[in-house]
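Continuing the batch. This is chain 6 of the set; chains 1 through 5 are on the previous pages. Same settings as before, nothing changed between runs. Recording input and output for traceability.
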Amino acid sequence: MNTTTNREWWKEAAVYQIYPRSFADSDGDGVGDLRGIVDRIDYLDRLGVDVVWICPVYDSPNADMGYDIRDYRTIMDEMGTMADWDELLAELHDRDMRLLMDLVVNHTSDEHEWFQESRDLDGGKDDWYIWREGSPEEPPNNWISLFGGPAWTYDEVREAWYLHLFDEKQPDLNWENPDVRDAIYDMMNFWLEKGIDGFRMDAISCISKPPGLPDADTGEDWFDMDLYFNGPRIHEFMREMAAETFENYDVMLIGETPGADPEEAKKYYEDGVDMVVHFDHMDVTYGPGGKWSPDYVGMETLASAGDDELDAMLNTMDLADLQAAIRYWDEGVGDEWNCLYMGSHDQTRAVSRFGDDRQYRRESAKLVATFLLSQRATPFLYQGDELGMTNADWDSADDIRDVEARGQVEMLMADHDVPYETIAPFVRNRSRDNARTPMQWDDGENAGFTDGDPWIQVNDNYPEINAAEALDDSDSIYHYYRRLLAFRRESDVLVYGDTEYVLPDETYPNVWAHRRTLDGESVLVVLNWQGEERTLDTDWVDAPVLFGNYAASERDGATLRPYEARILDRSE
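Output for chain 6:
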């Protein structure tokens, strides 16, 4: 399969995700803002990314840090003004970079005027959200929120229940109502007309609900959340959205589609979506029971083991599982296209999760970069990945800002009758706050993020891990990303080449290898995904090294150093 005949700018691009609250604060209020991003565009340009994706900056009360939108056409006061946003777009376009906006349309804030009017039966929008009559003592069904707790809240004003698949301050819109859809499409066109280069559509697979909202099947440790995803009218809605909005623009469409497998994803591609966000490869470090289940570790271990041991246990990964997840999607979507990420605003830090952030932080961060940028997918970098930023310690439950983590911690403490100190390792290795600690710009106060009091704690390791130090060090993780991004940009085989999966196997369970081939050109990517040396009994070592995270003088023939990454020339 030669896919260079289907060239697209978004296939060849590298995307850099910014969490604006934590990127750079320009006015000293402790919260990152749009002007802070504008001030740092040259940093991103030098890194060599092509697209900047910003998490929501719309007006919001911040129950879920901007993913609860109060007004789609207004910039949040903390983020700045529409003039700041206009300048950001212009500055990016002046550098041939593009802007991707987050789109959240499964739900709004409960402070959105639509919801306020929907609470009032005389407000004209009584069916813009999903309401059910009934006793205030008994929810309409047994659904639970993706953030924990019931998925229904009783509203005293309307004297009815409303559905929220996420937080209670995020009521779900009723997509069955054509007036709702028209209002959303009008809003989308507002931003498209302003010149954005695409949307990342948050939780888009949740917008169609099953008729009658039936009870879910439940078990002792299981709940059928598939009812929430890929509902019966989802593709009808998506095709209508395309026809009314993005189909008329040269933009990039990313759909976050929890619950979709590759076969379902193909339907989204047919709807006009360019890529879907999947989660299978992010689940490989979770044990039985899922992200917040302590059962496979045990409360006694949580209470007694040391930090290093707990971090390793909570991030245990079988490399074969990671390859199975990547291969499942690579082969499953066929000629369509994947996006790939190793960290995001919803995940913990990539090097802490997939590498070794203590002994081999630099080497393993570069290995993760090599893995990310050598797949047949558009790579998504998350802010701080290029610095090797790590998870943080959360000494007190009062420090937690993540609504998901707060709810889960409260349940774990109550269910197991343990103090916060016992649960703290789970927060360090599961909370989304780890990705939201401020960007570490230098070794000055608050890591150079703000002159004020930061809205969330700064990671204690900022004096050693920061952008100023990385820019001055030619061997830093930042410059490795910069060189590798440039290498990928000039290498069609790394973008469009077919993939052959080689390792891991029983002989080399902790060594990854895959081959990319295109028009007679072939490269082999070899990754020693462990903190120990490994000698390979193969002829690969005779091939020239095109790229690697160890200097030529440090390489040792057939022996791979801890977390060593090599891209080898295997062209005939």
